[in-house]
Write a structure and sequence with these properties.
14 strands, five-stranded antiparallel beta sheet, mainly beta, about 200 residues
Length: about 200
């Protein structure tokens, strides 16, 4: 069983410059905070999500180099990440059932470079707007610790990427809760309560 907090459609480019001169396009991510919860999760079972959309603030390309799970607790582990272009006509929740599936099984490439190359639709001229300008960030997670019955939390994701000669990072406020088996009960300690960047 899954519960999700709805995501607003607005996007924002609020990143940090790690190295370089500050030129090149910036990665744009959802402006709203949102999250997902799954109950009765067994340790070691992968859960894959593709709810985060990505695009650029100007023409060009960026390469996603790594993704960091923010403040993992309860044994939540990021098993992998990937990026692919959206399918025209829909942008969210291509993975209908995250339980037990992998990103590779869902059609995400299993090796880089992971390139984002489309300008955000809201920044394009209507007459030249491309239907497939958005990309999806895929993340694959699991409860890695079978010795605990604590909820497995992550409070968001930090995306590290390269734009021309610049290395940048941007935070996505997408929280994940994988709640252990609880004898058929819905555990209140598994509620989505917090989104924050890595401490």
């Amino acid at each position: 069983m899954a519960a999700a907090v709805a995501m607003a459609a607005s996007l924002v480019a609020c990143d940090s410059l790690l190295a370089g001169g500050g030129d090149g396009p910036r990665l744009v991510v959802p402006d709203a905070e949102f999250g997902v919860r799954h109950d009765h999760v067994k340790a070691g079972v992968p859960y894959s999500f593709d709810d985060v959309v990505l695009c650029l603030d100007e023409a060009g390309e960026v390469s996603v180099e790594s993704v960091e799970l923010a403040n993992p607790t309860g044994g939540l582990a990021l098993l992998g990440f990937s990026v692919r272009r959206e399918y025209p006509g829909s942008r969210l929740n291509y993975i209908e059932n995250p339980e037990g599936t992998t990103l590779e099984r869902e059609g995400f490439p299993n090796h880089g470079p992971f390139v984002v190359g489309g300008i955000c639709p809201s920044l394009q001229e209507p007459e030249t707007q491309a239907e497939d300008s958005m990309s999806l960030l895929g993340v694959e997670l699991a409860r890695s610790d079978a010795s605990t019955d604590e909820p497995a939390y992550g409070t968001g994701f930090l995306i590290h990427y390269r734009s021309e000669d610049d290395r940048r990072s941007v935070f996505v406020g997408f929280s994940v809760v994988l709640c252990p088996e609880g004898g058929g009960r819905r555990r209140p300690d598994c509620d989505i309560t917090e989104i924050r960047p890595p401490d």
